[in-house]
Amino acid sequence: MKGIKIVTIGGGSSYTPELVEGLIQYYDELPVRELWLVDIPEGKEKLEIVGNLAKRMVKKAGVPMNIHLTLDRRAALEDADFVTTQIRVGQLDARIIDESIPLKYGMIGQETNGAGGLFKGLRTIPIILEITKDMAELCPKAWLINFTNPAGMLTEAVLRYGKIKKVIGLCNVPIGMEMTIANMLEVDSSRIHVEFAGLNHMVFGTHVYLDGMEVTAQVLDLLGSGKVSMTMKNIIGLDWDRDFLKALKIIPCPYHRYYYKHKEMLEHELEELKKTGTRGAAVKQIEKELFEVYKDPDLAVKPSQLENRGGAYYSYAACRLIRSIYNDKRDIQPVNVRNNGAIIGLPEGAAVEVSCMITKDGPKPLAVGELPVAVRGLVQQIKSFEQLAVEAAVTGDYHLALLAMTIHPLVTSDVIGKKILNEMLEAHKKYLPQFFR
Amino acid sequence: MKGIKIVTIGGGSSYTPELVEGLIQYYDELPVRELWLVDIPEGKEKLEIVGNLAKRMVKKAGVPMNIHLTLDRRAALEDADFVTTQIRVGQLDARIIDESIPLKYGMIGQETNGAGGLFKGLRTIPIILEITKDMAELCPKAWLINFTNPAGMLTEAVLRYGKIKKVIGLCNVPIGMEMTIANMLEVDSSRIHVEFAGLNHMVFGTHVYLDGMEVTAQVLDLLGSGKVSMTMKNIIGLDWDRDFLKALKIIPCPYHRYYYKHKEMLEHELEELKKTGTRGAAVKQIEKELFEVYKDPDLAVKPSQLENRGGAYYSYAACRLIRSIYNDKRDIQPVNVRNNGAIIGLPEGAAVEVSCMITKDGPKPLAVGELPVAVRGLVQQIKSFEQLAVEAAVTGDYHLALLAMTIHPLVTSDVIGKKILNEMLEAHKKYLPQFFR
Amino acid sequence: MKGIKIVTIGGGSSYTPELVEGLIQYYDELPVRELWLVDIPEGKEKLEIVGNLAKRMVKKAGVPMNIHLTLDRRAALEDADFVTTQIRVGQLDARIIDESIPLKYGMIGQETNGAGGLFKGLRTIPIILEITKDMAELCPKAWLINFTNPAGMLTEAVLRYGKIKKVIGLCNVPIGMEMTIANMLEVDSSRIHVEFAGLNHMVFGTHVYLDGMEVTAQVLDLLGSGKVSMTMKNIIGLDWDRDFLKALKIIPCPYHRYYYKHKEMLEHELEELKKTGTRGAAVKQIEKELFEVYKDPDLAVKPSQLENRGGAYYSYAACRLIRSIYNDKRDIQPVNVRNNGAIIGLPEGAAVEVSCMITKDGPKPLAVGELPVAVRGLVQQIKSFEQLAVEAAVTGDYHLALLAMTIHPLVTSDVIGKKILNEMLEAHKKYLPQFFR
Amino acid sequence: MKGIKIVTIGGGSSYTPELVEGLIQYYDELPVRELWLVDIPEGKEKLEIVGNLAKRMVKKAGVPMNIHLTLDRRAALEDADFVTTQIRVGQLDARIIDESIPLKYGMIGQETNGAGGLFKGLRTIPIILEITKDMAELCPKAWLINFTNPAGMLTEAVLRYGKIKKVIGLCNVPIGMEMTIANMLEVDSSRIHVEFAGLNHMVFGTHVYLDGMEVTAQVLDLLGSGKVSMTMKNIIGLDWDRDFLKALKIIPCPYHRYYYKHKEMLEHELEELKKTGTRGAAVKQIEKELFEVYKDPDLAVKPSQLENRGGAYYSYAACRLIRSIYNDKRDIQPVNVRNNGAIIGLPEGAAVEVSCMITKDGPKPLAVGELPVAVRGLVQQIKSFEQLAVEAAVTGDYHLALLAMTIHPLVTSDVIGKKILNEMLEAHKKYLPQFFR
Ligand SMILES: [Mn+2]
Ligand SMILES: [Mn+2]
Ligand SMILES: [Mn+2]
Ligand SMILES: [Mn+2]
């Protein structure tokens, strides 16, 4: 028997031990015989550190999983069953730029939203499309499971311009919401079922069920009580107004704070910048320390310090997704896929984040119908932004990039938007050859 | 513990032993403590015969399920958990009229399609809407699971005009297709997964998977080979043209023969009428014999003769549906529900027959997207027919009934359609008070 | 001043004197300085006969319009302002085949509907697409005004596959309906305004206004009275059922008889075939006689005999369309154009026949909204047929042609549809090279 | 002959002389015999001043138009042909509140957008719906032509909840854009044709034609040149970024500055507030002076000072609309009507501002198709806001009002939005009984 071959592009990431831990735990249902960790020459050192830790972990766990480390992506891809991507074009220094320049002009500076998210997309989309070219040639039957941000934009790009169509965008936001809800209700998460609908980092929990009975209103009330908080490592947990949640009737995701608390989030970011610098800089420090820990030749498990990094449940989300595809489980998981009419009003071919039945033939979205009238416009606007950003990334068209920038709700001026665009294009020039031909 | 209470309206039906057999088999997962069989005074004798058989079956099986027989529907409905309906307004004599009059005018005479289906709908919709009134009052949390034909039209009527919204239309056609496909491929049906989309008796298998891998083309080829047949007891199994199936790319249901083999089906019906009379008359004879068998006080299982009656897999379909709701199973089953955008192009509020995830909160349709261009129009036309028929049934408006009749693809003349309408209105006058006010 | 240059492809048609008469009458608003009549070598004789008549007409009228006769299409097209097409691939002999073969198998045999319309489309679409290639090169700013049948299918083909996008399909059916309605109401047609919506030869008058006040119900009542008839030269004027029209609430076009009186129309065609042969054969005889008349060197006006040929109002329709484009009139005319959302539920890019504002920038459809529920399915089915037929014509794919054939409502059997397809492919082989590669 | 009867509700408005001037100019095509100016008791003095001026104007012009002044709305409405509404619930003091409170919390304070527009809608919708009740009873055939702001929201309210359906919302923004464009291009406005699509105060010029040839790109370039400005009296004419306009490809309306220059507009408003107070206060002063002028018994024409008030072209827009309806002109004008599918993606029943053919049967929108991807989301979001605001106005539901407030793009915080809501509800309590039951 051949066994499963997984290729992880950006394998030198600090998250890799998470993934390896998950693959070990799921081994019975998901017999991975080969895990190829691929990285670029600049990441060689990290790849070796993290790769050696992975080897120690596997050995200690006693599972027959072979870990391969390589800088040769094409060699790795051959006959892969699953390809996961967790790349960061321009590394954390690029992120720091994405966060700093918009803030300098008084606009939100954030990794995956607004001007910052736009540039992360512009840098990353060409690379992900190249990966799909290789896959079409070397492993045409494999699934591409993309963890890289901005995951919605990247899924959209692959659906529209990729050489393969078997792509799934994966984010830990929905699973984190499910877990928080279970905690709030003080029940095991297996008793909770949340219906998700929206876009990546713009997803809503539209209905929550406890043992099959709807408890959405109760969850909204708890969430508005100020006693619990649902957030991510990288987003400050500002409280929601209880009446607003009651009026909204659906559960916003942590990132919705950028939209419904735009003013406060901007003020907070400006303060933080003064006090402690960007999130990117903080992460850079965390990563540095993490890799020191990883180097320890006696370490053969995922170290607890990884939790500070964020990314909770990523490993769980990834492993249960791959497992359900591999075993044709037909269970329900929230992922980023082709809309296919699931959300009325969004293009049939657009990437959306919705609850899907996971089968060997891929995720099949459940029909959402119309989104609630209150959120329809915002969701469409972000989708429009993503569509224009993808077009801009593929064509290198300056005006398309300007349009994407300006229509984003977190960029509140055409004139300033253009200044930000110009300065960021210059700052990221090295990673944006399509704009400088 | 209270246990589940099921109420079966039309409990004196010859199909009831099927249902009872199923409930016995599923008892572990579906602990039914009370089964109320309800019928109308005209059906009292049959109710007693079949009810006593049911009691003997339960006793022999040793399950603690109480069978109640009653003519008092409202008494039965109180606090029910599930209400199933299998009624036949006007009994088989009305069906014989539905089949005969259209044929006299050279048009298809069929129980659930065309002029016959229209009149079955006109007679039955007011009754089903009355049942929903009682349910709203007496068991507002119960699910209405409707087996009565025309199931699509009835589900549409309840969705639009019913006093309750928890309704599911159930038909054995999709499950029969799944079983036939499993037989064709010579595999156990559990390894087969078929995606269904369309309307009741106008449903297509859009994708077939074997162990998660698509095998649709292979199934179409087998189906066009003339070696196997996929049909129902009441539909002659005329062979499909292999090239047509290859061109269609999706799997038609047995009833599609009325549309894609209209000419042959009409010729066949006219011949049969001459040779052996209507299907209704044949069924009447089968039923008569069946009830003789049922009377046997030594009989305590479903007799094998029931198979001649048709309705294969009804019991299985019903029990697995109720079980999955009761247990919040979240498995996939094809049922008739509110579209909710699952099929693009059909109204969001229309009843459609699609693969759904079955939860305690009811069925959640999987997104189908656009139907293939080749079938879009036909499906819309039948849905238009159903919408107009529902309006006509509710209002008693002659012109709406005439419009429904004339636009049906199986009625190929406005002038003759009107003659059929007039003669059928007169023939069914007793059951159509709304048209004679 | 340059003056307008019109090129008429298929200029040797018997209809040409109609067009010339119109151009003479409209000369003040539409100063045509050059009219190029183009035909193929097989049509050289007719071209000369009709061309010489045209020259005599122009001379007698005293307008400075130059008539050019040529077999060199590319020479003619250079710098044209408007190109009209009235071609007949395979001439009337092909039409006779289109009408005969389906009838032999008991199906409607008609020039533009059903199996016959399908084959007329398959033969003509490649030619019209070639014309658009020449236009893109030689007169890219010109409008293509297509009179050739099946006009809906051809417009669809050009919109999807043409090298130019400035195309309008023109039919005399809507204008004929308007004129008949004016006659019925005994008022001048200028006081009547009809809103049209649907497809070519499947168009409905959705609202009729007299002096701006709605009179649709009155018109329907008159039309169902049996005292007046609205039809075309080539369609028998079978009466509509008055109650059906009242129920329908919108005004069907003459061709709708093939759908709502399918049975009677088929019986009538079979009878006629026996009695007098096909319509194509009759037209052939009429044309022969017409050309004899045209030869008369003393004839310098459109002869009255042309009226037997059909095509009433074509000249009027064509001239007022070209005039309104040329003069940016912004008046309302029913033409075949890109849907652009005018009819909800049909593809945004599909060809539809709707009331449009006619501007120098082309026709701008008025928003229709949803078609009435009663006709939605039939219209979608014909559109589906057209879409598949266009695909088949462009690709030469046998299975697509079979699918188009079988889903057409006038072809009521998959098995017989295939026989008709096979026999017609063989009969028209010469004109269908794309199917015989 | 009866002659036309027009009723103007809010007849004591300072704009009335505009309207009267227009009616005098258009008298030949629009023979108004009775003009009823209606107002409420609080407006009696103004009504008399302006009414007497109107009488002097009519007398001087020598047209036989009778001016009636009344406080009895129902008496006035009887048998009216057209009803125009130009009311201001709470007068200018309410406007000052609408502008001040949001600004106090750092949010845009504007008459028709954001929090201010919301409250203007909440106050006015109940009154406009009462007017439709009277109309349904007293002049059911009349057209309601609403000039009152927020005109989009009010049209939406009447379409959804009004007792009459013959409603048109009218704004001078599109006509002002057309005039500015004509000025820019230095041509007479009759040679210009602009296609409009969007919502009231959120409308775009999607295509501009000069003599029928598209010149949109040229217009955008001029508009971005900084040499010309397209704005309204009440909106500062901040320059558009030339590249942004080039990227957008369609022409924004003056109000779009609040969205695409949100930051600058907010800063400007805050500055202005400090320097000169609200726009409402300024208008109050202008009005005071105007009415002094109106009192002059020697004045018998519209005084030139009215121009400072804003509202340019209102009279022209109103008169040409009424004239085209009355005369069934079938010309093209941009108005607010039921979408009817004209803009794909917005609800079929929603109010939209689009180019329409104006007929005796009302405006018929031209099909727009999909809005450009860049603006789809913003337009949908404002439509969502309007829909929720209408629901809130009709129900008096606090949570709906909070939801409308919070989702508006100009309100950038749930917590602050709630504070604004609470303070404004209290401030306008007298005019919002539905929220205090
Ligand atoms: Mn994420
Ligand atoms: Mn069935
Ligand atoms: Mn025609
Ligand atoms: Mn306005």
Automatic annotation (TrEMBL), chains A, B, C, D:
Pfam families: Glyco_hydro_4, Glyco_hydro_4C. Mn(2+) binds at residues 171, 201. The record marks 111 as: Increases basicity of active site Tyr. InterPro entries: GlycHydrolase_4_CS (IPR019802), Glyco_hydro_4 (IPR001088), Glyco_hydro_4_C (IPR022616), Lactate_DH/Glyco_Ohase_4_C (IPR015955), NAD(P)-bd_dom_sf (IPR036291). Its cofactor is NAD(+). Its EC number is 3.2.1.86. Residues 196-411 form the Glycosyl hydrolase family 4 C-terminal domain. Substrate binds at residues 95, 149. PANTHER family: 6-PHOSPHO-BETA-GLUCOSIDASE (PTHR32092:SF5), 6-PHOSPHO-BETA-GLUCOSIDASE-RELATED (PTHR32092). Homotetramer. This is 6-phospho-beta-glucosidase.
